[in-house]
Design goal:
Length: 115
């Protein structure tokens, strides 16, 4: 499934303010409904994580975990993923399991209950 990216600061702020969230020591996920009918995502990594190489690796790992989800996502969601300091030390398969659990809890996966 092809996803669009969130680039506007207002969309990130809307997800932080109005969205539901799931937290883990390695990843935080925010989900909020949108009106465009497709899934959009954004990834944030702060400088607390480390140098640019480490931040880029965290973004790549999260992006790949989202791309290789075994269940498709429902349309009409904005998803914001916030990397934490432990993200850079976590294996990509573990990030994928964390991400799947968070999206199931937020009812974003197809076949799940709707919020």
């Amino acid at each position: 499934m092809e996803y669009a990216t969130i680039t506007r600061n207002g969309d990130f702020r809307r997800a932080y303010g109005r969205g539901k969230s799931q937290t883990h020591a390695a990843l935080v996920t925010y989900a909020v409904r949108n009106r465009c009918g497709k899934v959009r995502y954004g990834i944030t990594t702060s400088k607390k994580i480390g140098c640019a190489v480490e931040r880029n690796r965290c973004r790549r790992v999260i992006r790949e975990a989202l791309r290789t989800m075994d269940k498709p996502l429902q349309g009409g969601w904005d998803l914001v993923f916030v990397a934490r300091a432990r993200t850079k030390h976590t294996k990509s398969t573990h990030i994928q399991n964390i991400l799947r659990g968070q999206l199931e809890a937020l009812s974003v996966l197809q076949g799940g209950k709707r919020l």
